[in-house]
Amino acid sequence: MAIVVIRQDDRIDLWKNALQNADTAVNVYSYLEEHPKEEISMAVIWKHPKGSLTDYPNLKCIASAGAGVDYIFEDDTRPKNIPITRIVDPYLASDMSEHVLAVILAHLKNLNQYKLDQVSHVWQPKQYMRIKDVTIGILGLGELGALTASDLSSYNFNVQGWSRSKKDIEGVQTFAGAAEQKEFLNATDILVCLLPLTPATEGILNEDLLSQLPKNAFVINVARGGHMVDNELIALLDSGHLSGACLDVYHTEPLPKSHPFWNHKKVHMTPHYASVSDTSSVIPQIIENYKRLSSGEKLQNLVDSDKGY
Ligand code: NDP
Ligand code: OXD
């Protein structure tokens, strides 16, 4: 049994070495080096080249190196009858919560606009908003959404959240399913998307949904670019219905230089770095799952293949 690391970014050696150092008894390979393919039982992957999982006849587990697994389901050639695991990690959740808080405060206090004013040497005080006067609505109350919601509530924001099944989170008003979506949206001043990307949520941030937010609402997408219908967001920003958007994720990453988001005054961008799996924190759970796989025990952080998350 052995592990192969498959990712196309410059973190592949970091991941390989971190897994290797965590347990020197385990054979860990990068998919870029010569390796015995029939020995591989676990593939630790992040945005792997489509088709690359078919190289391993004895693969028993696909371990996503991130929380999201949409890229795995997009690969039709993946082995379909083996478990998929993902990252559930306190730092991944708290880093996301901190990022969302920073974006919200920058919006309430006009910091993005002041940066633009500084570049143009403009002195123009603007009315700011207070925490107590805004309602944050979070789409998705899973590992990241639930912590973000309760953290924001502890800062005295009014917080509500929407998910597939009903949740009970102290200080957070919760809504579930299509029937309760409109009431949730109508009362949301700042919408935060923390849904997984699945066939049910693809394109959910469209004109129909976003226009149910009150006028001047602000949108934060930290989930996946595939949730957003870009041209419909731009139309609602241009019409004045939405006051702005802060985006961390895009249909194509890096975002092509010609995309209209780059030059849009109401769009604020970060490069898919709201929250990143920290090897020192998440490698132990992957090694633990590798040991469980070897001894036939139930794996942790399993993805539900029927739901796609
Ligand atoms: P979870 O699987 O823990 O939570 C998903 C939540 O979304 C659940 O509350 C679930 O409802 C809800 N949900 C799923 N489908 C629907 C639907 N059709 N209708 C309503 N609610 C739905 O995911 P995480 O919190 O761990 O992560 C969320 C996403 O964040 C990831 O999938 C990833 O795409 C993104 N992410 C982005 C990062 C970044 O840096 N930008 C970093 C890490 C993750 P229920 O509880 O009822 O099942
Ligand atoms: C993740 C991500 O899903 O980084 O972990 O987007």
Report the biggest beta sheet as strand number plus sense, adding barrel if it closes: 7 strands, parallel
Strand content: 15-25%
Strand tally is 12
Overall helicity: 25-40%
List SSEs in N-to-C order: EHEEEHEHHEHEEHEHEHEEH
The best one-word shape is elongated
Assign the structural class, choosing from mainly alpha, mainly beta, alpha/beta, alpha+beta, or little secondary structure: alpha/beta
How would you characterize the overall build of this protein?
This protein has helices at 12-22, 70-73, 90-108, 111-119, 143-154, 181-186, 207-210, 230-238, 279-295; strands at residues 2-7, 28-30, 40-46, 61-64, 84-85, 135-139, 158-163, 172-176, 190-193, 217-221, 242-247, 267-269. With 309 residues, the chain is of the alpha/beta class. The strands form 2 sheets. The protein has a 7-stranded parallel sheet. It has a 5-stranded parallel sheet with strand order 2-1-3-4-5, covered by helices on one side. Helix 1 (12-22) links the parallel strand 1 and strand 2 (28-30). Helix 1 (12-22) packs across helix 9 (279-295) and helix 3 crosses helix 5 (143-154). The radius of gyration is 21 Å and the shape is elongated. It binds NADPH dihydro-nicotinamide-adenine-dinucleotide phosphate and oxalic acid. Oxalic acid (OXD) is lined by residues 66-68, 87, 276-277. Oxalic acid binds next to loops.
